[in-house]
């Protein structure tokens, strides 16, 4: 299946804290980032963790976040980033910014 | 590890799992790398042997989920490899692959054997 999101697309991580086995770290939930690359499709660990087969596979992306967007009072560089692998169902596409 | 060192537990937000500590203040990280002990290596071998690359009785995602369900107090009392083997034990019992009593019997046997032979 073709990835629904492409490198450069802006996304927001879904802001939710559901029970169960989740692979999206708390510190990026609700935060905005940019798709760095599509990493391929993998059996869904959220289902595998509870004894299911994890199918259909889910698209995984590497998402790039600005450090200053993640941490209160971040004192490092303005353009410092962190990359986190996030599954597609945890990502909401954001509108393209005008002028880009 | 002393529980006093676990500063981040009191700083956890509602809805955040006790295992999900990325970005919380942990204090100074001990950078001294130590060789894994023999039982720690064996615990990884066991996990691989019954995991997806082995007999497929369990998978790594289930073991992770089991770590997240053992409770915060126990989780923080145990070291990394201890958590892994405890999570695996709970999972094997949950899935009906072994029984708690079976495991206790076998552990008592081994303890008796060590007491007698020294190994």
Give a structural overview.
The complex is a heterodimer of chains A (100) and B (119). Chain A has one domain (10-93): SH3 type barrels (Roll), CATH 2.30.30.50. Chain A has a five-stranded antiparallel β-sheet. The model of chain A has no long low-confidence stretch (mean pLDDT 95). Chain A is mainly β. Helices cover 8% and strands 34% of the residues of chain A. In chain B, helix 1 runs parallel beside helix 4 (80-94) and helix 2 (60-69) crosses helix 4. Chain B has a single domain, classed as Cyclin A, domain 1, CATH 1.10.472. Chain B is mainly alpha-helical. The interface between A and B is medium-sized, with 15 and 15 residues.
What's the helix and strand layout?
The complex is a heterodimer of chains A (100) and B (119).
Chain A (H helix, E strand, L loop, with lengths): L9 E4 L18 E11 L2 H4 L9 E9 H4 L10 E7 L3 E3 L7
Antiparallel strand pairs in A: 1-2, 1-5, 2-3, 3-4
Chain B lengths: L37 H13 L9 H10 L2 H6 L2 H15 L5 H18 L2
Helix pairs in contact in B: 1-4, 2-4
TL;DR?
The complex is a heterodimer of chains A (100) and B (119). Chain A is mainly beta and 100 residues long. In chain A, 8% of the residues lie in helices and 34% in strands.
Q: Helix/strand/pairing class of chain B, anyone? A: mainly alpha
Q: Please identify the top-level CATH class of chain B.
A: Mainly Alpha
Order of helices and strands of chain B: HHHHH
Strand content of chain A: 25-35%
CATH superfamily of chain B: Nitrile hydratase, beta subunit
Largest sheet of chain B: none
Count of helical stretches of chain B:
5
Could you list some keywords that capture this structure?
A: 100 residues, mainly beta, SH3 type barrels, 5-stranded antiparallel beta sheet, B: 119 residues, Cyclin A, domain 1, 5 helices, disordered N terminus
């Amino acid at each position: 299946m073709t990835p629904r999101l492409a490198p450069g697309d802006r996304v927001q991580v879904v802001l939710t804290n559901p029970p169960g086995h989740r692979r999206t770290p708390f510190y990026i939930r609700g935060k905005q980032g940019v798709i760095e690359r599509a990493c391929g499709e993998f059996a869904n660990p959220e289902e595998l963790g509870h004894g299911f087969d994890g199918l259909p596979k889910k698209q995984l992306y590497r998402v790039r976040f600005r450090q200053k967007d993640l941490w209160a009072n971040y004192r490092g560089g303005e353009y410092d980033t962190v990359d986190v692998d996030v599954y597609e169902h945890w990502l909401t596409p954001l509108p393209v910014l005008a002028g880009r | 590890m002393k529980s006093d060192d676990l500063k981040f537990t009191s700083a956890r937000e509602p809805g955040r799992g006790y295992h999900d500590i990325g970005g919380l203040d942990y204090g100074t990280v001990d950078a001294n790398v130590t060789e894994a002990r023999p039982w720690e290596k064996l615990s990884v071998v066991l996990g691989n042997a019954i995991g997806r690359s082995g007999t497929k009785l369990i998978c790594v995602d289930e073991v992770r989920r089991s770590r997240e369900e053992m409770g915060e107090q126990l989780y923080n009392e145990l070291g990394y490899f201890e958590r892994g083997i405890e999570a695996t034990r709970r999972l094997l019992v949950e899935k009906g692959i072994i029984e708690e009593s079976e495991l206790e019997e076998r552990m008592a046997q081994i303890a008796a054997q060590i007491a007698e032979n020294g190994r």
